[in-house]
Design a protein that fits this description.
Elements: H1 2-6, H2 10-29, E1 32-33, E2 42-44, E3 50-52, E4 59-60, H3 80-83, H4 90-106, H5 118-123, H6 153-161, H7 173-184, H8 196-206, H9 208-243
Antiparallel strand pairs: 1-4, 2-3
Helix pairs in contact: 2-4, 2-7, 4-6, 6-7
Length: 244
């Protein structure tokens, strides 16, 4: 409701999500897994600060063993291991955070989560990590930006959070938030392969001002050199004409 009413810009949405990650990380550092992260459990105050609520089915990580949460979880935001009755961990909350971020960026859940029935969600779990916010066919609500701005870093970050195997995701909410902060700072994110072109593009983004000055200076030097060459050539032609 807050997103629909305020229609915040992309950076404001990401900042709000980082605050949610901070709350989840605080729980994780106190050995608590929330297990039911979803929009209904996040309220936003008058200053735009999100508050994480409802730890009713939270689990204390006090030892091994996979306690199932099939009776109390929300299938639309549950991780694969929850839906299959497996062991939960901090990576379980990371998965739900990935779905929440998708919803905050696009205004809707991935197509794999459109049907809230448990059977339908289970049948499409293998396709989950292929969902990309920038390719979402029809945003659920009007957005103040084009989905094309999500292409690249944000697509990769969401995809990593939605990996089917817990060990392939960000291990904690803190790692998730750290990669998102790298994106905001213009630094390479861990969710993308560190190719030379990608690293160079991030460097250029961080140092846009300095590179603009260097480029202008370089073009000036080239222009000056071209002008000097032209003047020398004109002098040679003039001397030739005078000699004739």
């Amino acid at each position: 409701d807050w997103l629909d009413r305020e229609r915040p810009a992309l950076r404001a949405r990401l900042s709000a999500f980082l605050a949610i990650c901070e709350a989840v990380d605080h729980a994780h550092r106190h050995l608590v897994v929330h297990r039911d992260l979803k929009p209904a459990n996040v309220l936003v105050d008058a200053q735009g600060m999100p508050r994480l609520l409802d730890f009713g089915i939270a689990k204390l990580m006090d030892g091994p063993g996979g306690e199932t949460t099939l009776g109390g979880m929300t299938p639309a935001y549950a991780a694969p291991e929850q839906l299959r009755g497996g062991e939960v961990s901090t990576a379980t909350d990371v998965y739900a955070l990935g779905l929440l971020l998708f919803r905050m960026l696009v205004g809707d859940l991935p197509e794999t989560r459109r049907d809230a029935s448990l059977a339908a969600v289970l049948s499409r779990l293998d396709l989950e990590e292929t969902q990309r916010p920038s390719r979402h066919p029809a945003p659920g609500h009007a957005l103040p930006y084009s989905l094309s701005v999500l292409r690249g870093d944000l697509d990769a970050i969401v995809s990593r959070a939605l990996r089917a195997r817990p060990e392939d995701r960000y291990a904690t909410a803190r790692e998730f938030a750290a990669d998102l902060q790298r994106h905001l700072d213009g630094r390479p994110v861990e969710a993308r392969p560190p190719t030379g072109w990608y690293l160079a593009s991030r460097f250029a983004r961080r140092h846009r001002g300095a590179l603009s000055v260097a480029l202008a200076a370089g073009l000036g030097i080239i222009a000056a050199g071209t002008a000097v060459t032209a003047v020398r050539r004109l002098r040679r032609i003039a001397r030739h004409l005078l000699a004739r």
